[in-house]
Every structure is written in structure tokens, then in C-alpha cells.
Amino acid sequence: MSKKNKRPEESEKKLSREEEKKKNESQEPEELEEFGCEEKLADCQKEVEEYKDRYLRAHADFENMKKRLEKDKSTAVMYANEAFATDLLSVIDTFENALASIDKIQGDEAVEKIKEGIALTYEQLLKVLKKHGVEEIANEGVFDPHVHQVVQQVESDAHEQNEIVHVLQKGYKLRDRVLRPSMVSTKK
Length: 188
Known about the structure:
three-stranded mixed sheet, stress response, Nucleotide Exchange Factor Grpe, Chain A, domain 2, GrpE_CC
């Protein structure tokens, strides 16, 4: 069948649809109100606003998550060497003990050269650690539970209460994170 040989029923339906369409277009706004179009429009606008609000909230959540992940990533990079630095603290302790032991020995030039070599190595190790953010915790003044650990309390007339009297083991921190608290004695 060709296009020209359409059934008459189809052409009548097409004409009636076109007439109905023209009739609807020519209706006044008051007649449209009868069909509830303004209410539907208001509902649609409200729905659009709700979707817009949801989108803005989802976008804000996404941005916050991005910032949080970026912060977590930078923190992880900043403290990546924490375990390594903690392991090196025992090496520092050994150097300090070696230097203290050699100080007690009075002797010849060879002992002095060994002492000098150990002292230079110790200083170089401290410089490298400091370069990477590891620093000794200050142990003067009043006890701070965030960075000090009281091992013993002693009587002392020269110190105030809770003031550090003696440092038994040095403490260290990596940037703002404590690697090892200082072991101290305080006045009772």
C-alpha cells in the first residue's frame, strides 16, 4: 500500500486530533485552570527545586569527601616514616650510652678519637632525623601527660610539685605526633 491509499478512518482520526489540538491551544487560561494545569506546574516547579536541592547537597558532600581524602592522603605521606623513626630511637639511645661510657674512660689518644667519631656520628644522625621532622621532646619544667611518662616520684626541695626532676629516657616526636614519651621522675 502506498501513502496515498490510506484508509479513510485514519485520516478522520488525524483530522480530529488536529482539531482537538487547535481547540486546546485557543482555550483561555481560565479554561486551563479547570484542567488543573497551574497546580501541575506548581508541583513540577516544587519538584525541580527539590531535585536542585538534592543535587547541591550531593555535590557539597562530594566536595567534602574529596577534601577529607586529600587531607588523609597528606597525613599518610607526612607520617609514612613513623615506624622507621621509632626504630631509630634505640640507635640514638645506644649512641648516648656509648658516649656516656667513653666519657668515664680516661685514656690515650685512640680512645679520644673513638669518642670523637661516635659523637660526630651521633650528631649526624640527629640532624638527619630533625630534617625529617623527628625532634627531642623538651623536658624542662612541669610534667605534661601528653609527652611525658612519670616513672617515679622523688622528694626534692629544689623543685615544685609535678615539676620534672630527672629525665630517665629522652622522648621524641615526629612533627606533632609523639613517637616515644620521655620517661621522667617528678617531685611528689
